[in-house]
Amino acid sequence: MPSSPDAEVPAEEPALVAVLRRGLLGVAALSVTGTVIELAMLRHWTQASQVIAWGACAALLVAIALAARPASPTVVRVARTIAFVVCVSAAFGVWEHVEGNYDAAPLDAEYGERWDSMSAAARWWAAFTKSVGPSPALAPLVLVQAALLILLALHRHPAAGPARGRAYRSAA
Questions:
Q1: Rounded to an integer, what distance in angstroms lies between the CA atom of residue 64 and that of residue 75?
Q2: Structural domain span for residue 36
Q3: Domain assignment present for 9
């Protein structure tokens, strides 16, 4: 017989779900670790705005640590909030990369002479696709990926509390 909507949530979630949660957090941790290594190799600290990426990586590591052993609804909310803030900061990073490419374009060997004669759309497209400038426009999105993995790992987590943790009901 199907369970009623008011059925109690089991104390522990099914083993497969727990494994998937840990797997999502593991991939998030690998993504952040790879990003930290890449940032270090690129010496991504020469401008104040570049330090934002380092802060985002540190914040994601904190969120992963919190999500690995959420003890209360508050811990789950904090980890989710951190992940959301990192998503916003990564969008800022995409803008910074594109704008940096756009600003560097007049010095470009291929585009420099014709830059002023190009349409605005063509100039922004060249900056976005890294046809001009040194910055990969979509590189900051790896932080979004890691943040989304954390959010997925915490989706309907039992520690989120009774209003949000009703993901698993007894089949009896």
A1: 11
A2: 15-159
A3: no
